[in-house]
Specification:
Aspartate Aminotransferase, domain 2, 42% helix, 13% strand
Length: 385
Amino acid sequence: MTEPAERAWRAEFPITERLLYLNNCSLTPLPRRGEAALREYAKTWSELGGRAWYDHWIEILDALREEFADVLGADGDEVALEPAVSAALVTIASSFDYAKRPKVLVADIDFPTDGHTWLALADRGVQVEFVRSPDRVGVPLELFARAVDERTALVCTGHVYYTSGYIQDVKALAEICHRKGTALVVDAYQSIGALDFDVHSSGVDFLVGGTLKWLMGGPGMAFLYARRDRIAAARPSALGWWAMRNPFDFDVEHVDLAPNARRFEYGTPAVAAAYTARAGLSLVREVGVATVRRRHMELSQRLVDGARAQGWTVRSPTDASRRSPIVTLEHPDPPGVVAALRQRGLICDNRPGLVRLSPHYFNTLDEMDRALALLAPLRATAAVA
């Protein structure tokens, strides 16, 4: 990594001129090209009105599906656009028959939506069981292997756990699931854009993610990958008119599902979010996920080593190869720590019992050292508690 490249990366994010921004796993800051994309969207809407749909926007949505597919290692017809990961999981859940396989497995350290989606189906006979993490960092594969049986419809879990950054071996987990005829649904919101990943070689059945984290596209746009053989068999009941084969036929009397992953889509997509999503994805392609991954490992390791030297309890794998750039530190008053750091110009986040820092590729080692210097006096409050 050269100094000019680093300067160019940082120039794309004006927020770095004012703040030490380490909250990228909650929301990456708006890049300059994302702001330019929003201006282009507003100009198109202002000048063309409804004609923008046919002259520009449908083409942009089609291109976005292909660009999501490219970062996933998928084919474009295996990808659907979604308003949020929560909505993506709901339409996946609606496509399963739970009569013979009522059990769904979720890790107890997964993001809440990963459990809520199937807990809400209790009146349809769905039985959610939680695989318990022994250390609140990750879930050993053997615990999933013990829990998966012939009654298990699916496992829904994260590729990366949001409170620790632990990277789950989803390829091995897919093999465990498939030996028992169980589907694997992966929540990859915390990982796509941060880790090299290929959905085809992973063997996952469904995968969901979005753009507000490492893909740098902001809120309002998510994606759903469905393996080709899963698409053909799926009859989701949670859907909208964009899920139809020919939505612009405006046929109110029949459900004629699209032959591809669009059958999992809902209503009119958020076009402004599509513009910023494409801008963020262009940055991912330009920098390269491999480069991003190297930077993440270097930056997060500086945080982990420094925090441990200060006496913090780190709730993340200490080996950079086993975690994303998420670094979490235990503290009895995480909101207080985050507020104190914000006053000093460091932006991070908190989760129950944890202060969460998440650098991205445009951050620097100097910033990691500055963050550690700001954290050091706050460690004393954790020690007293």
